[in-house]
Amino acid sequence: MPTKQRRVLVTGARGAIGRAASKELRARGHFVRGFGRNAMDDVDEVHVGNLADAEAVREAVRGMDTVVHLAATPDDADFMDDLLPNNVIGSYNVFDACRDEEVDRLVVASTVQVVSGLRRSSDLSLIRIEDGTAVRNHYGVTKVFGEAMAEMYAHRYGISMIVVRLGWLPREPHHTLSISKSAASQAIYLSPTDAGRFHACCVEAGELPPVVTLFATSRSNGETVLDLEPARKWLGFEPVETWPEGRPHPVPEG
Ligand SMILES: NC(=O)c1ccc[n+]([C@@H]2O[C@H](COP(=O)([O-])OP(=O)(O)OC[C@H]3O[C@@H](n4cnc5c(N)ncnc54)[C@H](O)[C@@H]3O)[C@@H](O)[C@H]2O)c1
């Protein structure tokens, strides 16, 4: 049976993961509106604006069934200048607009960095969602804030929330180089193809518990470090690529 076509807002649609998600969603026949600071290609409709502008966010959310919220400062940065406006206030604006505009589902981009402290511990060979979080930087703290907001908005306002702790999709050639040198990084690699397929599964999944929290990576190159079973169970998501398959840049010399 064909999947129902959804109207999807992708925030950060110009970014590394946003491009992959938008491309796959459109290929599957969904309508994609992109939101970001700069115009982007490969979406059906463009809304240029800043997450800190509550009215611009509300206009972008209006009329959408599902929001895939990816726009953020995607790594550690100055808290007051970058993380607070983009990841805290910006996320607050997205959550609030989703409530007011009666969005059915919000996909919230968290990160494997919320379990950095667990990954460094030699006691755990497989990290599960129920192992909790162990944050080691301000960026991770802002992502735990997003996870807590998802919990609260799901239970208080009835929005279906999918919180995804995303693996490492290299944005820059130097990320690709770092991954190429580290087996631990290769184990949490997320290819653009798998990222696109994952977000399509989030949009197309039927009824779910109020909040589901998942890890999303490509297939591990060896030892599994993050438990992919929740993504399989709730979304039917199975990664198809393993590092270096699908990497967005060649491995630079260095
Ligand atoms: N790439 C990864 O390895 C990775 C891993 C874990 C989590 N994530 C998360 O996934 C999401 C997407 O990451 P990415 O790698 O695609 O990052 P990216 O930097 O490539 O894309 C982010 C996009 O968001 C936009 N943006 C940022 N702040 C904005 C604001 N205030 N208003 C409007 N637009 C704004 C940027 O202009 C950019 O186009 C982020 O939430 C990030 O924290 C990424």
Quaternary structure of the protein: single chain
Q: What's the main sheet like?
A: 7 strands, parallel
Strand order of the largest sheet: 3-2-1-4-5-6-7
Q: What distance lies between the first and last C-alpha atoms, to the nearest angstrom? A: 49 Å
Small-molecule components bound:
nicotinamide-adenine-dinucleotide
CATH class: Alpha Beta
Structural class: alpha/beta
* Unreliable stretches: none
The CATH architecture: 3-Layer(aba) Sandwich
Q: Count every helix, treating DSSP H or I runs of 4 or more residues as helices.
A: 9
The total domain count is 1
Determine the strand fraction and express it as a percent band.
15-25%
Determine the CATH superfamily.
NAD(P)-binding Rossmann-like Domain
What is this entry, summarized?
This protein has 254 residues and is an alpha/beta fold. The protein contains 9 helices and 7 strands; from the N terminus they run E-H-E-E-H-E-H-E-H-H-E-H-H-H-E-H. Strand 1, helix 1 (16-27) and strand 2 (31-36) form a beta-alpha-beta unit.
Describe this structure in words.
- The protein is of the alpha/beta class and 254 residues long.
- The chain has a single domain (7-235), classed as 3-Layer(aba) Sandwich (Rossmann fold), CATH 3.40.50.
- Helix content is 39%, strand content 15%.
- The protein contains nine helices and seven strands; from the N terminus they run βαββαβαβααβαααβα.
- The protein has helices at residues 16-27, 54-61, 79-100, 116-119, 138-157, 173-180, 183-186, 192-204, 229-235, and strands spanning 7-11, 31-36, 45-48, 66-69, 105-111, 160-166, 211-216.
- It has a seven-stranded parallel β-sheet with strand order 3-2-1-4-5-6-7, sandwiched between helices.
- The chain is globular, with a radius of gyration of 17 Å.
- The N and C termini lie far apart (49 Å).
- The model has no long low-confidence stretch (mean pLDDT 95).
- Residues 12, 14-18, 36-37, 50-52, 70-72, 74, 86, 90, 109, 111, 166, 168-169, 171 line the site of nicotinamide-adenine-dinucleotide.
- Nicotinamide-adenine-dinucleotide is lined by residues 12, 14-18, 36-37, 50-52, 70-72, 74, 86, 90, 109, 111, 166, 168-169, 171.
